[in-house]
Specification:
With 77 residues, this protein is of the alpha+beta class. The protein contains 3 helices and 3 strands, in the order ββαβαα. A 3-stranded antiparallel beta sheet has the order 2-1-3, with helices on one face. Keywords: Cytoplasm, Phosphotransferase system.
């Protein structure tokens, strides 16, 4: 989904474009980090809701979230 609004994530003094996966990676935000989300433009509310939902669902687009220990384990040998 593409939004017209400017969407920015802020961690401390670092501000990044939330539409850019590269920019999101540069945040290097660990689990539990506190981020501020700013959205400005004609569809700002929908854009902010969409980004918040992605974070809440741990970037699982189908809305189903597995516990971290279940997906982070290497396969049994």
């Amino acid at each position: 989904m593409q939004f017209e609004s400017t969407i920015t994530l802020i961690q401390g003094d670092l501000r990044v474009d939330a539409k850019s996966i590269f920019d999101l990676i540069t945040l290097a935000a660990e689990q539990g980090s506190e981020l501020d989300l700013r959205a400005e433009g004609p569809d700002a509310e929908a854009a902010a809701d969409a980004i918040a939902t992605l974070f809440e669902n741990r970037f699982e687009t189908n809305g189903q979230v597995s516990p971290p220990d279940a997906t982070d384990q290497p396969p049994a040998s």
